[in-house]
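Q: what sequence does this backbone want?
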């Protein structure tokens, strides 16, 4: 059972990078000297110079002193002191310090966490054109951090940062175009911005543009190009891309089929905790696909994904318990995991949970709940449940007997090729219209 998926937006840790602003006068000589000392690794001496200049209200030195305390350059890390000096520089209009101070308030680093104050400082820096602050402000609007969620404003600030070449903002802007968040949906524009970011090496954007090529979204479907971009991102450690590249090797889409490489990439992603890959790897072990069949290992990987809430893995783990595959048969555990997956809308699990209620396997027998779960699965189009529900209506099991509804559900299943449902329909016709009554 192969599963192709992608992740939603991934936001990296905000950058805190020094950016000196030109000043004039004697303090500048000292400031340059401190910079030279720092570049030579003499951080303690540089810190001494920055400290002296900072106390003389030299704005760049105030920022650099904050940076030293953040990174532990020439001193032990001291986030309180870092925030203090960022504040001093921010109040003098230093854009990078304003952004960093915003980050401190957003994450409670050296100051009490205060999202509204974080937003205030991000905005100060963003309005000066500072690209990281523009991106961070966009993130705040997108994720409702310190302000009411506003996708339009998120797009506005992502656009500002994207036009300055910020790869994360470019990727996020592409995501907004793909999903119509704060802007009219435009898949071609999504591809445009994904490509901008991908060509700068953003693994998330590389995965996203790979997904677009794979699914023909905003661009002509091209499996080879999908593989090209998935490979780029996978080699950077992006788990979604690693899983998706595994799918391509499994199916031979865009690349020569290779079961060994399929397993290699599934494993890379699975070991990072990526649930789809964990489930896929479990399936491979269960079925001996690309690896030697090992039911215990199948259970191991299904459990890894199931415990993270991944419905297909919960259903698969339930099946292992139900059938005693790779683990001792345990109907109660089977029902437990079926329930988990069923509540997330998994049709197979809903039907199987109905079977447990029908027979009292691992759970108290309950015909009403049996019908409830059969109906849930049947309405999702799950063919076995449609046939089961038809049988219940035909025989009055858990519901009042209703031949019309039995025929309705049998037809649903028969239309999907379910042979038992077709036979049931033929039997109903034969019972209602005996051979002697037929023309």
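A:
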């Amino acid at each position: 059972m192969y599963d192709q998926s992608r992740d939603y937006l991934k936001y990296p840790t905000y950058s805190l990078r020094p950016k000196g602003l030109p000043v004039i006068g004697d303090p500048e000589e000292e400031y340059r000297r401190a910079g030279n000392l720092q570049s030579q690794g003499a951080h303690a001496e540089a810190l001494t110079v920055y400290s002296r200049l900072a106390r003389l209200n030299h704005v760049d030195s105030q920022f650099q002193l904050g940076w030293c305390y953040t990174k532990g350059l020439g001193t032990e890390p001291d986030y309180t002191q870092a925030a203090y000096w960022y504040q001093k520089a921010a109040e003098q209009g230093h854009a990078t310090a304003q952004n960093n101070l915003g980050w401190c308030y957003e994450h409670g680093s050296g100051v009490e966490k205060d999202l509204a104050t974080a937003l205030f400082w991000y905005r100060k820096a963003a309005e000066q054109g500072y690209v990281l602050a523009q991106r961070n402000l966009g993130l705040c609007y997108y994720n409702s951090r310190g302000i009411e969620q506003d996708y339009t404003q998120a797009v506005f600030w992502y656009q500002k940062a994207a036009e300055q070449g910020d790869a994360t903002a470019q990727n996020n802007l592409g995501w907004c175009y793909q999903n119509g968040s704060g802007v009219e949906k435009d898949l071609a524009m999504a591809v445009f911005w994904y490509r901008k970011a991908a060509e700068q090496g953003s693994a998330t954007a590389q995965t996203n543009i790979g997904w677009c090529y794979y699914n023909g979204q905003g661009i002509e479907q091209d499996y080879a190009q999908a593989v090209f971009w998935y490979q780029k991102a996978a080699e950077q450690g992006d788990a979604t891309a690693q899983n998706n590249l595994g799918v391509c090797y499994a199916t031979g889409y865009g690349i020569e089929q290779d079961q060994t490489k399929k397993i290699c990439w599934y494993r890379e992603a699975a070991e990072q905790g990526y649930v789809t890959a964990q489930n896929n790897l479990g399936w491979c072990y269960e079925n001996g696909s690309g690896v030697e069949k090992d039911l215990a290992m199948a259970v191991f990987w299904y459990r890894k994904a199931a415990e993270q809430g991944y419905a297909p893995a919960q259903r698969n783990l339930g099946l292992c318990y139900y059938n005693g595959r790779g683990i001792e048969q345990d109907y109660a555990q089977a029902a437990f995991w079926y329930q988990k997956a069923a509540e997330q809308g998994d049709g197979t699990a809903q039907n199987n949970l109905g079977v447990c209620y029908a027979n009292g396997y691992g759970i108290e027998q309950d015909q009403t709940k049996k019908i409830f779960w059969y109906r849930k699965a049947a309405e999702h189009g799950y063919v076995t449940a449609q046939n089961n529900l038809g049988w219940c209506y035909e025989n009055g099991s858990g519901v009042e007997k209703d031949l019309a509804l039995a025929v309705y559900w049998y037809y649903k299943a028969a239309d999907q090729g379910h042979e038992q449902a077709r036979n049931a329909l033929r039997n109903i016709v034969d019972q209602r219209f005996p051979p002697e009554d037929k023309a």
